[in-house]
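Schema walk-through. Below, the input block comes first and the output block second. Nothing else is stored per chain. Lengths vary across the set, and this one has 144 residues.
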Amino acid sequence: MQIDMQSRDLPLTPPIQDYIRRRLSFALGSQYESIRHITVRLSDINGPRGGTDMRCQILIKLNSKAEVVIEDTQSQIRVAIDRAASRASRTVTRKVARIREKAINAPDFSASPSSEQSKAYIDKLLNDDVEFYFNTAPKQGVEQ
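--- output ---
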């Protein structure tokens, strides 16, 4: 699981990087094989003015080419990371379950007739005495 971290208007210190890695490893560890890449973006929306403005956005690319984007805004960056990681865990688990469900319920094409069987069936249909009816009546308003 590759994790890229980006920061805008906020220092990305080594302790914050370690915290993000630990938190995501814990939250997404059970779905490790399904995840191809994770991007974490941290930003301070209001800058020095303060307020509820620390944003954590997590973009998760799954092996099935699906993407999950989670965003959370809080007054403290660690709280935003925690909440986004928790939501990411639940969302990725649901998404992977849906993908697996679709794979299980997909039609089994291996059970379909072979090409030789299909050709024999088509030949039988063509050789049977089947009458085809075509509508040969002229269309109204069209000259022939």
